[in-house]
Structure prediction request, 357 residues.
Amino acid sequence: MTASPKIPVTVLAGFLGSGKTTLVNRILTADHGARIAVVENEFGEIPIDDALVLTGDEEIIEMSNGCCLCCTARTDLIDILHRLLERPERFDRVLIETSGMADPDPVAQTFFVDEEIAAAFELDGVVTMVDALHARAHLDGAAGEGGEGGGVGTRVTDQIAFADRVVLNKTDLVSPEEADAVEERIRGVNATADVIRARYADIDVAGVLAIGAFGGAGRVAGAPDAMDGWDEGAHLHDPTLDSVSVEVEEEVDADAVREWAEDFLRERGPDVYRIKGLLAVGGDPRRFVLQGVHTLFEITPGTPWNGERRSTRVVVIGRDLPSREELGRALRFCSPAQAGGRTPARASIPASSSAMP
Prediction:
């Protein structure tokens, strides 16, 4: 399923009851012809179908369709990934299901900070399942309207903010108008994630396992319109979260963007959930993809522009963020003409009050 020497990994997030387990069961039993390792990061709370029940001592179970189910309730994620690498057969993909109250952030960061894991695996994308029936109540709670405050509502908001793709599940339980309203709320938190509607988590597996968000060869890198609709005011922002986007016509210097991102995320990383971007690098015919989680980021080459309009587009999702004007000024300092000897982040974006030491 991939030409890359690295094994692509999808992180599956979503609040309790959103349908993650139903999707996992579909993958474990579907006739898709791929060897997929499904890693449960808290197996004890997950009701796997009777046909797939594990005995107490088993950690890796082979499925008849070539998938395997891995239990990590008593095993560190890095350890289970190393065990997968030690198996004689190669897996086409890995799917990691997080627990219902978990942020996908720590799992995603694993593929940046561990050198051995980063050499063997490539983060493909973060997928978040959303319950269409209860999502608006959760999001209202995060906004302080429903009394949930920093609990359930904030957790659901955070899971949506991290996503590269959102599966709006249980749409059979709401009207089309209600589904539209929920999708609008989702886009108010994360305007760049694709939204797939589903009933009973019945979706094409390729829709969640072949995103390519971090690898430079997927939709973000391959489609010039993938980041359209980022203009502020084009969607409703959740009061607990901000999304700042900017587009500059100037080509950029890759080293200057890297320097800016390092400084920017060093100062504001705890408040930055995701940073995403398409970069038009001077003298290079390819799109470059910027993807980051908190203080960690990478810039990778993607597909050629092929005569399409070149511009640099960046969006930052998080809290306590700089203004659009400040972000645009920083990126303009990264143009080849402006970049020589400057430190673009410090020249244009003031330090955050919650800056890291």
The radius of gyration is 20 Å.
